[in-house]
Write a structure and sequence with these properties.
This protein has 312 residues and is an all-alpha fold. Helices cover 69% and strands 1% of the residues.
Amino acid sequence: MTSRNARLGYALVVLAAVLFGVNGGVSRVAMGSGLSPESFTTLRITGATLVFVAYAACFRRSALRRPRGSSLLLIIGLGLVGVTALQLTYNVAIDRLPLGIALLIEYLAPVLVVLWVRFVRKEPVRGRMWLAVALAIGGLAVVSRAWNGLQFDGLGVVMALLAAVSFATYFLLGEHHVGFDDPLRVILWAFVVATVAMNLIQPIWTTPALDGSTSLLGRLADHSANPWLVIAIVVVPGTVMPFFLEMVALRHLPATIVVVVAMLEPVIANVLGWAWFRESLTPIQVVGAVAVLAGIVLAQTSRKVESVLPQP
């Protein structure tokens, strides 16, 4: 058993949140090169799977053993919902919504988890749950300026909400012990399932030809980069590394703490949206965003059980 080191755990999950947050902006650049969200998702998941398999083949061959029985069914669920559905809906959302708003909506997942636990599983939760729900819903209403009608792309909002549902489902599936001592085996095979699913939806060989350069958009629109380099950045530091960092962090911190600290991601996304893509929020919308984040923290800490897998 690896000895616990809380400081290391916090450092790892903060770094993972930064990488996930920055990846949202890089992903938007990648899709700006002419890739649809579907083609981009196939490239991202397939590329990450190849890296996971190569790493396991070189350093941890036991992770390549195929899961069986009920564990296989759980892995299929994680792959289809926690990787495929989440990544696809998330990519559509960030393509159509301000980056920070898409992440705020996606991070309603802990609130949905608590509601499921309370009303479906009938498990006890702390009274702060109701304040958490009120803050999250009220904050989103303020951010979206609901009193003026929906201010954002309707399909983008629907996709972000579906991403939240997929994220919540991932947590709930993860709480059923997979039966593996090695988290890498879980993630690797979940990505294998997702790779098969995405290649059925949008085969990788149908990826359109990409130009030699793509604009970096926003304040960096005058600069360009090779689109395949951008995709490589999405795959390795944007997908494989943060997944791996969070897996290691879970050896040092409870999953509930990891999820709360990982909420730095929507904060970083909001800052990135302002600094890179000229996205802005009015002062009252900033207050709403803070209320959403506070609600998510309260929701996650109102539970009396822990999830066991990192975020997708």
